[in-house]
Specification:
single chain; NADH Oxidase; 4-stranded antiparallel sheet; globular
């Protein structure tokens, strides 16, 4: 996962028009918006980040067709940990996928290395404006034991 934390007024001015209409005001009001992405050359860091598997880099280089899926899935899992960590600290998080992420990637990663796919507003939410917990499916409706 690669994160760009958008906090300054100048950066928000660039981000807001790239968000879907329903998310623009949310981004304007949020203290920080975390842009979550992935590095398509993540395998370059594997010798350092995953020393338990010294041949990880060569494995991924031999499986180039799988790189986009692996990068997106890994980044998404790590984004969930970011949200859980922020919430454990008492922060509110509003993950959003409604945006022009190709344009966001171009704007916030002009070298093209990072592909953004999610935005998360982070701050202390006003309890009176937060949605109540949504209904959940019953276990049997969403799961199967085989």
């Amino acid at each position: 996962m690669r994160v760009t934390f958008v906090k300054s007024a100048k950066a928000k001015e660039k981000l807001v028009p790239l968000m879907s209409a329903g998310n623009q005001e949310k981004v304007k009001k949020a203290p920080v918006t975390a842009l979550v992405g992935y590095d398509m050359e993540f395998y370059e860091k594997l010798p350092f980040l995953f020393p338990a598997m010294p041949d990880a880099k060569s494995y991924f280089l031999s499986q180039k067709e799988k790189l986009p899926d692996v990068a997106l899935q890994s980044s998404s899992l790590q984004a969930a940990f970011l949200i859980m960590s922020a919430r454990a600290l008492g922060l509110s998080c509003g993950p959003m996928v409604g945006a022009n992420f190709n344009a966001i990637s171009s704007e916030f990663s002009p070298n093209g290395k990072i592909k953004f796919h999610m935005a998360i507003n982070i701050g202390y939410g006003d309890e009176s404006t937060l949605y109540p917990r949504s209904p959940r499916l019953k276990f049997e409706e969403a799961n199967k034991i085989v």
